[in-house]
């Protein structure tokens, strides 16, 4: 499939661009989608570990490569964090991250932009409703109150836009307290038991539970992984949707979209690996 596709990618109208630094790239210099040689190919990227080193900023080389790619195909990012985090990692003081990509999907697409314009957004509370949320959080707080664990701190439920984060010890725990809790949880499985109880009690809610990090677990609607963003592009008529991600293994946050029938998945080990595959695949 790539072999058949590759020759086309090198063709198309040659355009001349003033060679300016990507951070100064204004939206006005972007090739309109309809003028790109492969306008029916969408290339989506995970952010952390794929376009940037873990929790760090993208290099100028990566940013330049994205701008070169954007002359040929349609590009987008899909990250689990909120937009300010992606602005910090990919944008610059004078460049808005939503202007650097044709599609920008923060929080897996709950916050979404196309050509710098915001699309319909969604939130956990809006989806669940106040009444059902209250029943859920009341149950959680009762359960935490009745838990016999060595120590408790504060912030047992953290309310976020797309999910809630639940911690039996509380998110205010110090580093040492977190380490101790993690060890305790490995021995007693208190988080796993808590999740089982919630699954049983709120079976009709359509929720997914994800135990991650040292002290907590996330609760969010089923299907609100990275595949959520695909609904924003399903009517755009793309013939191919490529996805690049570093955590494409089962349990990783790129797994669902990587495995999805609507995408062609690429596993990468680093931003350098992403660049290498892009150069091969799209002749940039
Ligand atoms: Mg990643």
Automatic annotation (TrEMBL):
Pathway: Nucleotide-sugar biosynthesis; GDP-alpha-D-mannose biosynthesis; alpha-D-mannose 1-phosphate from D-fructose 6-phosphate: step 2/2. It catalyses: alpha-D-mannose 1-phosphate = D-mannose 6-phosphate. It is an enzyme of class 5 (isomerase). GO terms for biological process: GDP-mannose biosynthetic process; mannose metabolic process; protein N-linked glycosylation. InterPro entries: HAD-like_sf (IPR036412), HAD-SF_hydro_IIB (IPR006379), HAD_sf (IPR023214), PMM (IPR005002), PMM_cap (IPR043169). Its EC number is 5.4.2.8. It is found in: Cytoplasm. One of its GO terms (molecular function) is phosphomannomutase activity. Its cofactor is Mg(2+). GO terms for cellular component: cytosol. Alpha-D-mannose 1-phosphate binds at residues 55, 160, 171, 178, 216, 218. The active site is at 46 (nucleophile), 48 (proton donor/acceptor). It comes from the Eukaryota. Keywords: Cytoplasm, Isomerase, Magnesium, Metal-binding. SUPFAM superfamilies: HAD-like. It holds the Pfam family PMM. Its main location: cytoplasm. NCBIfam families: HAD-SF-IIB (TIGR01484). Homodimer. Belongs to the eukaryotic PMM family. PANTHER family: PHOSPHOMANNOMUTASE. Involved in the synthesis of the GDP-mannose and dolichol-phosphate-mannose required for a number of critical mannosyl transfer reactions. This is Phosphomannomutase. It comes from Saitoella complicata (strain BCRC 22490 / CBS 7301 / JCM 7358 / NBRC 10748 / NRRL Y-17804).
């Amino acid at each position: 499939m790539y072999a058949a596709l590759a020759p086309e990618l090198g063709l198309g109208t040659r355009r001349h661009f003033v060679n300016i630094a990507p951070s100064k790239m204004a939206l006005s210099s972007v090739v309109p989608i309809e003028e790109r040689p492969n306008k029916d190919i969408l290339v989506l990227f995970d952010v952390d570990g794929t376009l940037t080193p873990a929790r760090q900023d993208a290099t100028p080389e990566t940013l330049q490569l994205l701008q070169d790619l954007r002359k040929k195909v349609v590009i987008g990012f899909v990250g689990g964090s909120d937009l300010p985090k992606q602005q910090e990692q990919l944008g610059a003081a004078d460049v808005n991250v939503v202007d650097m990509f044709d599609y920008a999907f923060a929080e897996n697409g709950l916050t979404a932009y196309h050509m710098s314009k915001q699309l319909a957004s969604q939130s956990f509370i809006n989806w669940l409703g106040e009444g059902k949320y209250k029943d859920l959080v009341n149950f959680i707080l009762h359960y935490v109150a009745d838990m016999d664990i060595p120590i408790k701190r504060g912030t047992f439920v953290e309310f976020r836009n797309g999910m809630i984060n639940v911690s039996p010890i509380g998110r205010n725990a110090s580093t040492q307290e977190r380490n101790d809790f993690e060890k305790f949880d490995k021995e007693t499985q208190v988080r796993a038991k808590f999740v089982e109880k919630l699954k049983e009690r709120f079976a009709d809610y359509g929720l997914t539970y994800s135990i991650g990090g040292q002290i907590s677990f996330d609760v969010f609607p089923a299907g609100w992984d990275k595949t959520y963003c695909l609904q924003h592009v399903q009517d755009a008529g793309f013939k191919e949707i490529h996805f690049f991600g570093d955590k494409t293994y089962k349990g990783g946050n790129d797994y669902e979209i990587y495995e999805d029938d609507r995408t062609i998945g690429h596993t990468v080990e680093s931003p350098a690996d992403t660049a290498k595959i892009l150069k091969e695949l799209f002749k940039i």
